[in-house]
Design goal:
- This protein has about 150 residues and is an alpha+beta fold.
- It has five helices and five strands, in the order αβαββααβαβ.
- It is about 35% helix and about 20% strand.
- The chain has a five-stranded antiparallel sheet with strand order 4-1-3-2-5, sandwiched between helices.
- The N and C termini lie far apart (about 40 Å).
Length: about 150
């Protein structure tokens, strides 16, 4: 049941890009999650300037990532949902430079258009089995600035 819900959550929103964040060596989940958030925050700062956090959340990127292979070939498969200006940035060479600058262990950044949201969602959650499957999931949601 959790796999079907996860598949639906990824595919129903129609991701703009499929991104694989690769690492050169293993990192623990919490460090990797912090790097994922750092990448997304820095991307917004580059694209929208230093006051990016004031832009409404509906006009900012969100992402769902699944961490795979913690001990060998560690990487995140992520679905990125983003306005066109972010998709354009991600497709540029600057995205690879940004990912590499987040940590010395950050490796290749692979981006692909999503031709079939259902097929991509199935691939993204292929390792999500058992009760702890969600322990490998990362969500990036725009923070809401409270007054």
């Amino acid at each position: 049941a959790h796999r079907a819900a996860l598949h639906s959550m990824i595919a129903d929103r129609q991701p703009d890009l499929a991104v694989s964040f690769n690492l050169k060596r293993a990192l623990d989940f919490y460090t990797l999650q912090s790097l994922f958030e750092l990448f997304m925050n820095r991307m917004q700062s580059i694209v929208d300037g230093r006051r990016w956090h004031r832009i409404p959340g509906t006009d900012r990127p969100t992402a769902i990532g699944m961490f795979e292979h913690r001990d060998s070939n560690p990487h995140i498969h992520a679905s990125i949902y983003a306005p066109p200006r972010y998709v354009e940035f991600l497709r540029s060479g600057a995205a690879q430079e940004l990912w590499s600058s987040c940590h010395p262990r950050c490796g290749q950044l692979d981006l692909d258009p999503v031709r079939s949201a259902k097929r991509w969602a199935g691939y993204q959650i292929k390792k999500a089995h058992g009760p702890d499957a969600l322990d490998n999931m990362m969500l990036y949601l725009p923070s809401v600035r409270r007054r």
